[in-house]
Amino acid sequence: MASFTFRLPDVGEGTAEAEIVAWHVKAGDLIEEDQPLVDVMTDKATVEITSPRAGRLASIHGEPGKMHPVGAPLAVFEGETGEGSQTTPGGGGSTAAPAFFESENPRVLTSPAIRRRAREAGLDLATVKGSGPDGRITREDIGAHLAKPASPDPTAPSEMAAPEAVTEVKVVGLRRKISEKMSEAKRRIPHFAYVEECDVTELEDLRAHLNATKRTDQPKLTVLPFMIMALCKALPRYPQINARFDDEAGIVRRYAAVHLGVATQTPNGLIVPVIRNADAHDIWSLATEIGRLAQATREGKASAADLSGSTITLTSLGPLGGVAHTPVINHPEVAIVGPNKIIDRPVVRQGQIVVRKMMNISSSFDHRVVDGWDAAAFIQTLKGLLEHPATLFLP
Question: Which residues are catalytic?
Answer without folding.
Answer: 367, 371
